[in-house]
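hiii so um. not sure if this is the right channel but i have a protein structure encoded as tokens and i wanna go backwards to a sequence. like what aa goes where. can anyone help
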């Protein structure tokens, strides 16, 4: 049976996936930090305890994106209504990302 041409790498087992790529020296791992509650005001997020954990390197939040000139959006507005990558000032649902912890292990 002929294979659909774009699916040939997957069908033959030669496709390379993210898990197949070796981790580069100096690479960091990211872990999203999620809101524990819905419909809450976020006055501030204090990452001090997380940053004290072994291997913790940096906290990234909405202010860091703005400082780097990046939009705090999951997708461009043309794709869907604007949704923030990190909640800022208000978390609308439990599990909404409020930031990301970067670590070296």
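sure thing!! here u go:
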């Amino acid at each position: 049976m002929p294979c659909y041409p774009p699916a040939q790498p997957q069908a033959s087992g030669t496709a390379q996936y993210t898990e197949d790529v070796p981790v580069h020296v100096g690479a960091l791992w990211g872990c999203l930090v999620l809101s524990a509650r819905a419909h809450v005001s976020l006055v501030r997020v204090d990452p001090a305890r997380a940053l004290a954990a072994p291997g913790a390197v940096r906290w990234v939040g909405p202010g860091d994106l703005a400082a780097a000139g990046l939009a705090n959006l999951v997708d461009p507005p043309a794709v869907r209504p604007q949704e923030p990558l990190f909640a800022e000032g208000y978390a609308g649902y439990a599990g909404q990302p409020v930031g990301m912890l970067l670590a070296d292990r």
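oh and The chain has one domain: 26-103.
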